[in-house]
Write a structure and sequence with these properties.
The chain is α/β, with parallel strands linked by helices and about 140 residues long. The chain has helices at about 15-30, 60-70, 135-145; strands at about 50-55, 75-80, 95-100, 120. The radius of gyration is 16 Å and the shape is globular. The N and C termini lie far apart (about 55 Å).
Amino acid sequence: MEPTSAATTAVPNSCLASLLASHQHYLWKNQLGFLIHPKTELNVNPTALKIAEIGTETGLWLLDLAKKLPASTTLHGYGIDISSAPPPQSLPANISIHRVPSYTDPFPFPDDLLESYDIILINSLASSIKDNNPGPVIQNAMAML
């Protein structure tokens, strides 16, 4: 019997990617001890917070965050591949996850998201950075704050 390679493994790549993303989330969460840095200053009523995650894969960060914040907090996830995220009907009412075609195109998000968020997490986008230039991703995220 030949050794198993990535090309012949019985576990689909999307499943492996989902497992890796989940494991990475829990490692960061357990090692850091927080989901949002405790020194983050918010100049808004905590019940009116609007938070986005750019780079959503599994939705775990949003789901964990929803457990710690008031149900009135709006939580949105944006990802290129959201196939590992829970189906919309299983998410809490304050969470929504959306597919975007790119993070680096000139503002790939709907225009109504300009200046609409209080906090944005940019999550695991190394493979989405074009030409080794994170500038467009950061500019798009900053436009949403």
